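[Discussion] Sanity-checking designs against the backbone

I'm trying to build intuition for which residues belong where. Below is a structure token string of 229 positions. I'd appreciate it if someone posts a full sequence so I can compare it with mine line by line.
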């Protein structure tokens, strides 16, 4: 006859091993959680870029109603855009282009747009472009960014002194405050001259609703107030 088995009759090694395994798993879980939290902080800037890269690689773009110019991480709101600019944007989605180097946001205008390197036709059909010869997005100096007046930069018609501009890159978020605006001729490149202080210069054609090739350039000048990493 088999009598009732007491757990006391088993050696204690299995229970001890189980405790050790639990301790190891707890430590491993803590390390993984810490690594995850660190990755979340580090990727604050690059996550926004990844959202844009995903949206811009879609085969089509769906118009939105309401809002000003662009929602964070979403497809553009076309309600201020010209018909031709909307079609150019949609065509650009089928063409290969490098990933954004950053994003530019003007909260009061509801405008967020990807920033690419260069100002060729495809780049400006897809987003904004850093002007060659100006400071890089992550360095000190005068960063020049161009965009179409009938596309992403249409909303600049309503920008005013004191507006906040945020520029996000994989390594930092720079905050600028608008110092003012001016209208210059296309030949006047003095606004893009290098500076010792961190500045941002936005450039688009003017007048905003001019039919044909606009004769002037609308300039937004801003100074960096802080940087977070």
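Best answer:
Here's mine. Compare freely.
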């Amino acid at each position: 006859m088999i009598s009732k088995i007491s757990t006391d009759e088993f050696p204690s090694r299995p229970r001890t091993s189980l405790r050790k395994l639990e301790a190891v798993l707890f430590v491993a879980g803590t390390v993984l959680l810490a690594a995850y939290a660190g990755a979340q902080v580090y990727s604050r800037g690059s996550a926004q870029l990844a959202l844009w890269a995903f949206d811009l690689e879609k085969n089509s773009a769906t118009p939105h109603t309401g809002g000003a110019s662009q929602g964070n991480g979403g497809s553009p709101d076309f309600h201020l855009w010209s018909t031709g600019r909307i079609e150019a944007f949609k065509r650009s989605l089928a063409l290969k282009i490098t990933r954004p180097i950053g994003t530019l946001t003007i909260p009061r205008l509801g405008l967020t747009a990807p920033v690419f390197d260069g100002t060729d036709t495809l780049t400006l059909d897809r987003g904004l472009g850093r002007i060659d010869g100006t400071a890089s997005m992550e360095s000190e100096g005068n960063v020049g960014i161009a965009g179409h007046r009938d596309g992403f930069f249409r909303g600049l018609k309503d920008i005013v002194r004191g507006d906040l501009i945020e520029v996000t890159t994989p390594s930092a978020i720079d905050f600028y405050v608008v110092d003012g605006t001016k209208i210059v001729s296309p030949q006047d490149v003095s606004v893009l001259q290098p500076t010792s202080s961190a500045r941002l210069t936005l450039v688009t054609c003017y007048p905003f609703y001019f039919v044909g090739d606009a004769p002037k350039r609308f300039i937004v000048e801003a100074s960096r107030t802080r940087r977070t990493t």
